[in-house]
Design goal:
The protein is α+β, with helices and mostly antiparallel strands and 79 residues long. It contains one helix and four strands.
């Protein structure tokens, strides 16, 4: 189990994704890694959301490109 900060969620092809920043024990992120997963929201109104690995390389590349677009549009920097 790793603590992460949520950077954003975004939609692509009617699927929701989430970009996470993994945090070290001091609450920082030295290497700038970002993890992208499929994000399955709890539709009952609760907080029991789920993450799914993206197994397909093409899907992952497209999701990463979409996230990169979000970074540029929002002038977001990961240090």
């Amino acid at each position: 189990e790793i603590e992460c900060a949520i950077i954003t969620t975004f939609n692509m092809d009617s699927t929701e994704y989430i970009a996470l920043l993994p945090l070290d024990e001091d609450g920082g992120n030295e290497d700038g890694d970002v993890w992208i997963y499929r994000f399955i929201r709890d539709t009952t109104g609760g907080s029991d959301h789920d993450l799914q690995n993206i197994e397909d390389d093409d899907e992952y590349d497209r999701a990463a490109d979409k996230f990169d677009e979000w970074i540029l549009k929002n002038n977001y920097f990961i240090l």
